């Protein structure tokens, strides 16, 4: 089924169950013909009903029952639709109140401008009043009739009219005189006896009245507070014109005279606060190509960029495009309040409210048994998105929160009062606290696995934490949420990076089944800042605006950009708006709920009370210091594990000895590859002011070679210097 230039007026849509497969040789029936859907092609005849994509008004024999049914539909509802539900009524009234308030404020701000305009128009107004008065006094409106009587030489009629005019003028003159005398007396009284404010008020009223009278009809006094706009219907012609304006040659060919056209597998219909069109792009054109040109598409549709949301349909072929065109821009659309804003608590075993899609529909995320990766370029809403998730987690009194905000601006500080572990800043101490906490969680993996393994099978039929098991205090299987904002600070750190990556990789892989949820947010999604093993294992991925496909795929998963899931299409103003993978069956566009600092404080306070009542506050939230890792002196330890005879030593040799000597402090280094061992010690020695270099020495088999090492004397010197 095709749409060509000639048949554009009859653009049709085939419902797939009725006509399949789409036939290339099909052309639309002329408008006058009854569309039968029978299609001649070279080899086959397709049968089915043809449904006009623009749903034209049907004409045909009068069907009385249908007519009556239609009339019934035309009846106005007894109770307005918006008054039928409390929520709708509240929304409409709130909107009206806000709108009225806006209009009032708009005009209030412009009062000085309006006053100046009135003042400027006063002379014109006074002149108009004078002209009207003279015209009234001398009965000027009757002048043409009197002139006509003169020209027709109707003397009797003229005399009657003149008499009537003289009487009128006399009466009006008296009226005017009495009025003038009264006005003069009142003016004298006001000038002498009235208080100053009354005098000013009267002058103001007179000026305003004269100004209003002097206002030209085409220059209204008030500015327009709201520019009227009409929500335009989306039609197939608009969609085709817009697609034709993208500069994609295959589309232009398809729309050309001999082209095969573009088909609409479903009628264009209203979907939430906007229109939805489903389009089968020409053979060989993918949705990804259209997504790349979203701005051109918006221009072609003559809509704001924030209203135009093309999406792929993953269960269909890559050329199936769903184009949703909103009545207003997503960022401007009023966002429904976050459901947990004022009340309520959650269980992390159920989906938690996160935000809304373009159509305003709520989007929830099931965090249990998943991990989350949030990424974007700076200032596009990562931390806000993370905070929404963490505030929801805080409202599950069973969830233990370990929060590390490595930017240091205090974005998560509202949650400190409910956090088991909390640290902020890109400092060594925050990173050390984070690694220490990760190490605990890492150890917890084995403990939890053992607990679950030891349970009767009916209690853990799927070998994972269940809501019942999580609620049992004796098992310690409560949900555990570890969140690291700006995690690149940790993973790219010379000292802590490797160790942190080791723990995080294990947690992200084994944690979900054990009730441990890792949430990472980063503004630098490259392989150094986010180890592949971690990014590859995140189940839920939220990508706000990024600049390139590499960052896009690093966060959303390999191949996503190619498949049309492109966070590169977000614009400067699309803050808080992201592509999210792993929340629903298909990737979706979602805007996080907007919870600012003060709002977050209120929610965290409620979470604190919930936890207090449930007796689940723990760790730093009740003033317990996090367990510190054993303190040690690296330089002193190096001197201990080496002898005075060893002038030069290789890094890797020393690391092995250190791990043996003080396993609680150095055992994690022992598991590293040789190169990593060397690099780790190099970094630590550099901090202590000890240089490492290529060092000649012999390995255990007696073979001599060059490897990275250091002079023992340098270590002793650095230690001496520190002690002075
Ligand atoms: N859902 C939202 N709706 C509207 N605006 C939002 C939303 N989320 C975030 N913003 C806006 O985006 C700004 C930046 O948000 P945020 O601090 O979360 O960015 P970030 O990506 O964490 O920045 P950085 O990389 O510097 O840490 C906020 O100040 C806020 O005004």
Automatic annotation (TrEMBL):
SUPFAM superfamilies: P-loop containing nucleoside triphosphate hydrolases
Superkingdom of origin: Bacteria
Residues given in the record as ATP binding sites: 376-383
InterPro entries to which the protein is assigned, alphabetical: FtsK/SpoIIIE/SftA, FtsK_dom, P-loop_NTPase
Residue ranges of the TM segments: 173-191
Span list, region Disordered: 693-724
Alphabetized Pfam families for the sequence: FtsK_SpoIIIE
Keywords associated with the record: ATP-binding, Membrane, Nucleotide-binding, Transmembrane, Transmembrane helix
UniProt domain FtsK: residue ranges: 360-553
Biased amino acid composition, Basic and acidic residues: 693-702
PANTHER family: DNA TRANSLOCASE FTSK, SPORULATION PROTEIN RELATED
This protein's name: FtsK/SpoIIIE domain-containing protein
């Amino acid at each position: 089924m095709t749409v060509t230039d000639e048949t554009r007026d009859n653009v049709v849509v085939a419902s797939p169950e009725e006509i399949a497969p789409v036939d290339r040789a099909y052309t639309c029936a002329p408008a006058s013909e009854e569309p039968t859907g029978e299609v001649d092609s070279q080899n086959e005849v397709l049968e089915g009903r043809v449904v006009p994509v623009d749903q034209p008004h049907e004409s045909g024999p009068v069907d009385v029952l249908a007519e009556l049914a239609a009339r019934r539909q035309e009846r106005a509802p007894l109770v307005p639709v918006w008054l039928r539900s409390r929520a709708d009524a509240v929304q409409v009234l709130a909107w009206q109140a806000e709108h009225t308030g806006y209009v009032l404020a708009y005009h209030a701000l412009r009062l000085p401008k309006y006053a100046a305009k009135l003042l400027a128009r006063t002379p014109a107004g006074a002149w108009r009043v004078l002209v009207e008065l003279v015209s009234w006094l001398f009965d000027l409106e009757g002048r043409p009739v009197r002139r006509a009587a003169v020209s027709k030489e109707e003397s009797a009629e003229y005399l009657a009219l003149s008499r009537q005019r003289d009487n009128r003028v006399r009466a009006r003159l008296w009226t005017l005189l009495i009025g003038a005398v009264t006005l003069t007396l009142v003016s004298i009284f006001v000038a002498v006896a009235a208080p100053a404010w009354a005098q000013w008020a009267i002058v103001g009223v007179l000026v305003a009245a004269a100004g209003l009278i002097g206002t030209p009809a085409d220059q209204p006094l008030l500015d327009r507070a709201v520019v009227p706009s009409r929500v335009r219907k989306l039609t197939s012609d608009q969609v085709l014109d817009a697609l034709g304006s993208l500069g994609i040659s295959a589309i232009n060919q398809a729309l050309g005279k001999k082209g095969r056209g573009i088909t609409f597998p479903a009628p264009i219909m209203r979907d939430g606060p906007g229109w939805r069109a489903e389009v089968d792009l020409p053979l060989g054109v993918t949705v990804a190509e259209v997504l790349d040109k979203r701005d051109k598409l918006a221009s072609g549709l003559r809509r704001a960029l924030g209203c135009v949301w093309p999406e792929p349909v993953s269960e269909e072929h890559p050329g199936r495009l769903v184009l949703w065109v909103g009545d207003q821009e997503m960022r401007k659309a009023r966002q429904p309040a976050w459901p947990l804003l004022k009340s309520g608590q959650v269980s992390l075993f159920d989906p938690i409210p996160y935000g809304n899609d373009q159509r305003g529909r709520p989007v929830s995320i099931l965090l249990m048994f998943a991990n989350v990766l949030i990424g974007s370029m700076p200032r596009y809403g990562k931390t806000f998105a993370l905070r929404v998730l963490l505030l929801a987690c805080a409202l599950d009194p069973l969830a233990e929160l370990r929060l590390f905000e490595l930017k240091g601006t205090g974005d998560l500080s509202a949650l400190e009062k409910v956090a088991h572990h909390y640290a902020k800043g890109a400092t060594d101490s925050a990173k050390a606290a984070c690694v220490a906490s990760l190490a605990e969680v890492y150890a917890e993996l084995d403990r939890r696995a053992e607990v679950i393994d030891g349970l009767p099978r009916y209690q853990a039929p799927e070998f994972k934490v269940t809501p019942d098991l999580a609620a049992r205090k004796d098992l310690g299987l409560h949900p555990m949420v570890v969140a690291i904002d700006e995690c690149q600070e940790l993973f790219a750190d010379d000292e802590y990076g490797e160790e942190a990556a080791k723990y995080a990789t294990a947690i992200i892989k084994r944690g979900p089944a054990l009730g441990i949820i890792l949430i990472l947010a980063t503004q630098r999604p490259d392989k150094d800042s986010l180890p592949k093993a971690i990014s590859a294992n995140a189940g839920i991925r939220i990508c706000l605006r990024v600049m390139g496909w590499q960052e896009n795929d690093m966060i959303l998963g390999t191949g996503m950009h190619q498949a049309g899931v492109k966070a590169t299409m977000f614009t400067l103003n699309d803050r808080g708006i992201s592509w999210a993978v792993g929340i629903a069956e298909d990737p979706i566009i979602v805007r996080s709920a907007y919870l600012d600092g003060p709002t977050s404080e209120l929610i965290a306070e409620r979470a604190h009370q919930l936890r207090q009542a449930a007796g689940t506050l723990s760790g730093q939230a009740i003033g317990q210091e996090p367990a510190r890792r054993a303190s040690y002196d690296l330089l002193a330890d190096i001197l201990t594990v080496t002898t005075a005879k060893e002038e030069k030593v290789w890094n890797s040799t020393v690391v092995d000895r250190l791990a043996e000597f003080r396993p609680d402090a150095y055992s994690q280094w022992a598991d590293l590859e040789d190169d990593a061992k060397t690099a780790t010690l190099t970094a630590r020695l550099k901090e202590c002011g000890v240089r490492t270099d290529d060092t000649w020495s012999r390995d255990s088999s007696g073979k001599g070679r060059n490897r990275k090492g250091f002079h023992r004397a340098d270590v002793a010197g650095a230690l001496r210097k520190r002690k002075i």
